[in-house]
């Protein structure tokens, strides 16, 4: 298999040379970095023929901040604080990924209280992330109201987090060896209130957007990606599951207490935008199921098992652990040379792989479909560039 | 001075019951013209100032209403800070737009870039001149009213096309091309739906069309075809004025802002204003043609009921019907997602247009055989 490497300039030039008096001219537009539906600063060079998309070339790096390199000069405990800046919608799950790597290396066994609280927090974060995605998806489809509905309900979880953690977006709660603080006394009650509140609201989501005939027209059979392509790209999370692959680390490589709770992994059929939509809506329901099972069963125990203000030193070696974020597999790879700072740290972020599926599925669809596909991938751009 | 009978307004309005006396500014002007030019000029200036003032006030009211309606649809309050419940918010925004820098992009076609918003607003302004608000409130009662409305309404698309073209921006151009295709396509359906009412009322003059609904509105007096025509007209008009679910020319999430991406300050405000006034215009025209305009809700033969309905002044009926239709348009906007370009065209050419043709032919037969209520 040969790989053709060509620079952006070469690819832009090549096709404009084809000229004929009758043929229409293809043209290029920059979609982003400042564009309402690229959700941040993703830049895509789009080759268009009128309204029809011929090729999409994602151009990454606009928000590259060198987080991996910065990790080499931070201690492990400090590096946790960087992770909530990569995928800001799953801050706690990212915290967990790094903490898990460190705990694996330092061979720390966690008690049930820590594990259960972490699992609840992660699932709340997943619900919150999917709520935001749902709102933004509606907005990308041209309906502004879902955006505010999504934000309204997201706000409640944010408040719950704020009460326990103190932060609302870039949260640092899950630490190597446990949790930063114990949960707030109101936590359990408020989470239960939220579940009671949100179940009817989810029905409202369905009636407002899912059942809408225009939305169905826009997303059904649009942007189909089969399982083989999805795997070859390295897509994970809902994008992969929508293509029909039952791949969920919470089942395949259980961490936390996922092996003790009962939940299903929703799987799509053909991998179109609708499947990706449906998988995420179902995941919200499954996450609520998990939280419901755990919220009344938080045992007593310590919430921090490592001495706080002490530098963590990991034994020499390489360590890897992975978690399922709302967008897919986040892997943390640490090379330690025995000092208090990692020798090298690498993050395998889900969006970096997921974004390339847009190049596979978008050709010969319309400009409006490109927006729908991009939105259905649920990309968080800082997570791509790190 | 031309002799009597020269002025078209001197014609008798028809054999229809003359309970309603139609007076327009144009009529006053033509009467004054017999005395001298000065009085006529006064009336013309009055008409122009009235329309310009109405345009500005209506624009502000509609923008405020849209924001409030949107707010309550989305479980929030909308503007609340400036004035009581934010009523002065639009005034503040207008002042802001006046004071903003007017940016013309590098290498843009400057003349067209400046003209485009004016064209759009001109089309809107010209239609307002014939909208019958109530029997005594209308600037001009053109005897080819329906044709006039359709014709000058087409100015809007010219402005949008020029704006998109002259901006020297690919997103703008895509938006303008979408607008051109969309507005011209949907005008066909809208016109076919208008013709249904023209057939039933037997006149192109808007005041005649209203008077012909004295025994009942065409939406129910012409069984089925009236309703179908109304729905087609309303959908097609929504597409013509680029509102959700047909807001592709602007298509915020796709084209950043479509044809007005490169407009700022007052020029942007003109596009914005034209869009909102167009919303009023299509509601007013739909109300005039299908819901009787300022005509109260009458049922032919029930004189007592009709007398009760007459208690409300015609102006209130017009305002009520138009506001309701405007509310429906806002309801659309804050509920529906956007269609895709090819789906939009399919809806027009494969669904609305055939139905419109069948509806028109059915209407022609019904008029020929007199198959409608109150005949």
List keywords for this structure.
heterodimer, A: 386 residues, alpha+beta, Cytochrome-c3 Hydrogenase, chain B, 2 domains, three-stranded antiparallel sheet, 8 strands, 48% helix, B: 375 residues, mainly alpha, 15 helices, 65% helix, 0% strand, globular, disordered N terminus
Detailed description of the structure:
The complex is a heterodimer of chains A (386) and B (375). Chain A is of the alpha+beta class and 386 residues long. The model of chain A has no long low-confidence stretch (mean pLDDT 85). In chain A, the strands form three sheets. A three-stranded antiparallel sheet of chain A has the order 1-2-3, with helices on one face. Chain A contains 16 helices and eight strands. In chain A, a hairpin with a 2-residue loop joins strand 6 (317-325) and strand 7. Chain A folds into two domains: 8-59, no CATH class; 75-383, Cytochrome-c3 Hydrogenase, chain B, CATH 1.10.645.10. In chain B, helix 2 crosses helix 12 (265-290), helix 4 (110-128) packs antiparallel against helix 5 (145-153) and helix 10 runs antiparallel to helix 12 (265-290). Chain B is built from 15 helices and no strands. By secondary structure, chain B is mostly helical. Chain B starts with 24 loop residues before the first helix and ends in a 6-residue tail after the last helix. The longest helix of chain B is centred in the N-terminal third of the chain and has 37 residues, at 37-73. Chain B has helices at 25-35, 37-73, 89-99, 110-128, 145-153, 155-166, 170-201, 206-211, 218-221, 225-240, 252-255, 265-290, 303-309, 314-333, 341-369. Chain B has one domain (95-369). Chain A binds chain B through residues 27, 29, 35-37, 48, 50-51, 138-145, 148-149, 152, 208-209, 212, 214-215, 217-218, 366-369, 371, and chain B through 70, 73-76, 170-171, 174, 177-178, 244-245, 247-248, 251-256, 334-343.
């Amino acid at each position: 298999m040969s790989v053709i490497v060509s620079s952006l300039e070469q690819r832009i030039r090549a096709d404009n040379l084809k000229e004929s008096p009758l043929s229409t001219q293809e043209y290029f537009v920059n979609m982003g970095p400042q564009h309402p539906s690229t959700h941040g600063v993703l830049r895509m060079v789009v080759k268009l023929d009128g309204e029809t998309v011929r090729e999409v070339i994602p151009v990454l790096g606009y928000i590259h901040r060198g987080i991996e390199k910065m990790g080499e000069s931070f201690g492990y405990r400090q590096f946790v604080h960087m992770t909530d800046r990569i995928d800001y919608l799953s801050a706690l799950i990212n915290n967990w990924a790094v903490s898990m790597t460190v705990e694996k290396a330092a061979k720390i066994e966690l008690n049930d209280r820590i594990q259960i609280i972490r699992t609840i927090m992660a699932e709340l974060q997943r619900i919150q992330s999917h709520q935001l995605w749902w709102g933004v998806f509606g907005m990308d489809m041209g309906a502004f109201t879902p955006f505010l509905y999504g934000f309204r309900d997201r706000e409640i979880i944010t408040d719950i987090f704020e009460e326990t953690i103190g932060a609302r977006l870039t949260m640092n709660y899950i630490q190597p060896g446990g949790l930063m603080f114990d949960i707030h006394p109101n936590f359990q009650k408020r989470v239960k209130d939220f579940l009671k509140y949100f179940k009817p609201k989810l029905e409202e989501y369905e009636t407002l957007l899912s059942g809408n005939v225009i939305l169905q027209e826009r997303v059904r059979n649009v942007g189909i990606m089969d399982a083989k392509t999805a795997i070859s790209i390295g897509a994970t999370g809902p994008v992969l599951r929508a293509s029909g692959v039952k791949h969920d680390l919470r089942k395949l490589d259980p961490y936390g207490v996922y092996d003790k709770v009962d939940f299903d992994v929703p799987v799509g059929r053909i991998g179109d935008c609708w499947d990706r939509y449906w998988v995420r809506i179902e995941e919200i329901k499954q996450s609520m199921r998990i939280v419901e099972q755990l919220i009344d069963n938080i045992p007593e125990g310590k919430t921090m098992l490592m001495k706080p203000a002490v530098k963590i030193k990991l034994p020499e070696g390489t360590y890897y652990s992975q978690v399922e974020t709302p967008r897919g597999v986040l892997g943390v790879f640490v090379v330690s040379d025995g000092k208090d700072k990692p020798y090298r740290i690498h993050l395998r972020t889900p969006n970096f792989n997921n974004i390339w599926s847009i190049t596979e599925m978008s050709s010969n669809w319309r400009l409006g479909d490109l927006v729908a596909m991009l939105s259905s991938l649920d990309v968080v751009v800082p997570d791509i560039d790190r | 001075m031309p002799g009597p009978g020269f002025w078209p307004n001197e014609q008798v309005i028809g054999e229809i019951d003359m309970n309603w006396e139609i007076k327009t500014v144009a009529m006053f002007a033509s009467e004054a013209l017999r005395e001298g030019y000065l009085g006529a000029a006064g009336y013309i200036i009055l008409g122009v100032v009235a329309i310009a003032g109405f345009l500005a006030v209506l624009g502000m009211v509609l923008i405020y209403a849209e924001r409030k309606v949107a707010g309550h649809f989305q479980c929030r309050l909308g503007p609340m800070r400036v004035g009581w419940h934010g009523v002065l918010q639009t005034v503040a925004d207008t002042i802001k737009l006046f004071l903003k820098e007017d940016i013309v992009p590098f290498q843009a076609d400057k003349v067209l870039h400046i003209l485009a918003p004016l064209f759009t607003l001109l089309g809107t302004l010209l239609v307002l001149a014939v909208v019958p608000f109530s029997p005594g409130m209308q600037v001009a009662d053109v005897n080819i009213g329906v044709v006039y409305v359709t014709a000058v309404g087409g100015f809007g698309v010219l402005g949008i096309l020029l704006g998109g073209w002259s901006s020297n921006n690919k997103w703008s151009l895509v938006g303008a091309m979408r607008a051109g295709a969309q507005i011209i396509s949907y005008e066909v359906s809208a016109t076919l739906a208008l013709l249904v009412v023209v057939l039933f009322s037997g006149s192109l003059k808007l005041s005649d069309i209203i008077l012909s609904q004295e025994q009942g509105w065409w939406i129910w007096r012409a069984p089925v075809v009236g309703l179908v025509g109304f729905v087609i007209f309303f959908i097609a008009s929504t597409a013509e004025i680029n509102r959700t679910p047909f807001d592709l020319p602007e298509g915020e999430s796709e084209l950043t802002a479509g044809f007005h991406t490169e407009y700022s300050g007052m020029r942007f405000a003109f596009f914005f204003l034209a869009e909102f006034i167009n919303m009023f215009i299509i509601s007013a025209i739909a109300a005039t043609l299908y819901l009787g305009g300022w005509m109260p809700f009458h049922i032919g033969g029930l004189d007592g009921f009709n007398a009760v309905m007459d208690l409300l002044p015609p102006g209130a009926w017009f305002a009520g019907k138009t506001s309701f239709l405007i509310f429906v348009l806002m309801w659309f906007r804050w509920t529906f997602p956007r269609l895709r370009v090819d789906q939009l065209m399919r809806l027009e050419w494969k669904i609305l247009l055939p139905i419109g043709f069948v509806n028109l032919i059915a209407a022609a037969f019904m008029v020929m055989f007199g198959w409608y209520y109150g005949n």
